[in-house]
Amino acid sequence: QVQLVESGGGLVQPGGSLKLSCAASGSIFSIYAMAWYRQFPGKQRELVATIATGGSTNYGDSVKGRFTISRDNAKRTVYLQMNSLKPEDTAVYYCNVDRGRGAINRYWGQGTQVTVSS
Fold this sequence. Notes:
By secondary structure, the protein is mainly beta.
């Protein structure tokens, strides 16, 4: 039974930083690439960053150079370090797998809210 629990969100001023965590049950870290997604109000989720089982990473154009994804397989946790935050980064952030064909729908958790505002 896989559970994904996101944490670390909150209110931050423009230019500030936050670090998100996603704790996972089960053995999915040894099977799948992991990813962070985000969802703006009234819109579908978008892919933010991915990290493969071997550690290679990819980022969406809007966050490249500002966000860093990492994983700790022993702790079954994936992280997203967010620097130089902008108001347009305000969203609910989720973690899930990245299979190439997308996330696994039954794994979606509640996400964590990130609000960037002065």
